[in-house]
Protein: TonB-dependent receptor
Organism: Hyphococcus luteus
Amino acid sequence: MRGYINNRGGLSWTAALLSVSTLALAAGGANAQESQGGVDSIVVTATKREQNVNDVGAAVNAFSDEQLRDLGVESSTQIAQQSVGVYFAEGPLSHLPLSNIRGVSQNDFTGYLEPPNAIYIDQAYISFQGATAFQLYDIDRVEVIKGPQGTLFGRNATGGLIQYITKAPTRETEGYVKLSGGELGKFSSEGAVSGPISDSLSGRISGLYSRTSPYIDNRAGQDLMKFNDWSIRGQLLWEPTDAWSDRLILSYSDQDHNFAFQHSSTGFDPVSGLEYDLPMDENYYGNCEGCDPGGYVDTDGDPFKVAQDAPGLFDAQTFNTTNILTGDLSESVTLTSVSNYVSYEYSYQEDSDMTPRYGLLGQRTGDYNQFNQELRLQGDAGDFRWVGGLYFLWRDTDDTANQTFGVPWLDDVLASFGEIAPGDLLGLGNEDRLFSDFSMETTSYAAFGQFEYDFAPQWTLIGGLRYSYDSIDYSFVMDEFLDDVPAAGAFGTTNFTPATVGDLAENNKGEWSGQLALNYKPRDGVLLYLSGNRSNKAGGWNAPFTGGAVLPLDQEILTSIEGGFKALLADGKVQFNASGFHYFYKDYQGFTFVNLATLLTNLDADVTGGEVEIVAAPGEGWRLRFAAGYLDTMADTNVPTATGVRDSVLPLAPKWNLNGSIGKEWPAFGGTVSINANAVYTSEQYSEVLNAPAGRIPERIIGNVRVAYLTGDESLQFAVSVRNIGDDEKPIFRIPTHVGFTQNMYDQPTHVLAEITYGF
């Protein structure tokens, strides 16, 4: 209970927000929605039915295709820059995006576990983290729904969810072609064609190709950070009657990247045992000043120069097919079926030691498959609206991990730590290889229902319940080889399979999620809401592929209380939203990195926070947006200090997150000229739950500017944009390895792009 007592003041957010809403009502006027040239509103499906975003009693950010274009959002992870409280780690690498919504994250990057923030593409849940990194093209809108969404969207929507909605086939012929290119050797081409095939059948086909030339100079090998991505999507929409439709979506994508982490040496605090960044003049290991245990130091400090003997490589293929069947069973009841299958395969290699020496080469492959099916009915009886359904998920993940140590390097490292005498390992061979083979199969069933009841003209009661049952089987086998000869040396072997450990490798559990909420609409354009939610994330096991015990993980349970308001003010020219929340987090799956392997343990945690968003259209052609988010998090880690123990803040959870944009358009040259500038600020944060100083990610500001010209017939647009305009060169993600060095990742440097788009 200590964390709750420390944060007890956070529950006063609701009262404060209700007080602020009173002022908002006074400023709003009686006819706030009867406006001309006001702020844009978007229809979303946050409640599994279409609603104006301002009528949803939850914190929702929605972005149309035009807004995404003006903001320069081109990938699934870049949406985080436009939504406070949302963060994606690993930036341009994109091989495993680690999402965080309001402090809720699963930053174990081994990939086989499901994140607690659900990702949906066209109503279908994507359970593989790697498959959620993709380029956005031919997109209709993106919806970011914050806070637990376990009732309607199921387990693993503990922190919230992001929905990417692609454009559907049309009954009229339309399409576009877009070309862009610029610095860093960037080039991309995308396009789409849509139209009727017959009286009842429409089709759409769209595709994308993009590339980036290497922009990291590697003094010990090939230059790095080269990307080649392509994707294609085909759709058919069959509408035999006005009441029934069937939409089939097939997509395939291929990602081919090379990449590099940047090296920094670390020492260990004598009390806590946590890593800290080693000063250049400190000879911590007795080998050289600023050096890691293997004797290497990066002296230039340039994030775009490295010296690595092996390139980082990532290659992935994703096949995704979704079928959405919708039919009106009566005037008030609709049936929806969403069927989805995903196949995701990847291969991965990293120079884990990040030096020109043959030290540690990490290699992994994965073969993932999933099928999920949702059937739901929803009805509208005027004052009473309801939705109910059944859900099924099957997912299977098969991974291999090859961790190969150069024996001379390993001898130096272990000798630096005092584990062996120098030279003890020499003569055993050239390389020590740990081969791990692990798999996890999940079968999940769920039933859910939710209602909305207008029990008075201005009041709506919302209630919902979901019950899920998960059956999970896990297998992990690790063997050690010296020069390909089986051995039981420094790391030993591990055999964790259902046949050998019985029930320990199985995790069968039922769990419930629920919601109870109250909405109040004192007048048109104003909504006040208060809600309580309970949601859960599936359990699992860790994968210690450099030695150690396989530890089971219990399910996470998150219980939240949230209050907020949405107000359309100043004759529809200002939208003012705010929310405050407190999370009680039981068995949070806390992540850290120990001995070059991920480690997850269950901890209790608390989150208190609030968000404010203001969108304004103060004059003809002007659009302004500002949003601020605050988080106060605590995880019960009990890290030793000189004066006792301390708790930690949750990883990837900056205390402050601000973003804003300003746009202006005006008639010129027979068409329209527009300019849009946006920026995001995040305060410092940590990459893992123990808050090692070497895992501290510094505060940073990223800004972008885009200038465009649209011809009078709106068929042709030219644009120039500048990305990372301040040339921020701070790390965006850091991994303390616990063996004397940290892996660092950086965003792309400042670059200029030009684009041309033709639409018909």
Observations:
- The chain has one domain: 2-562.
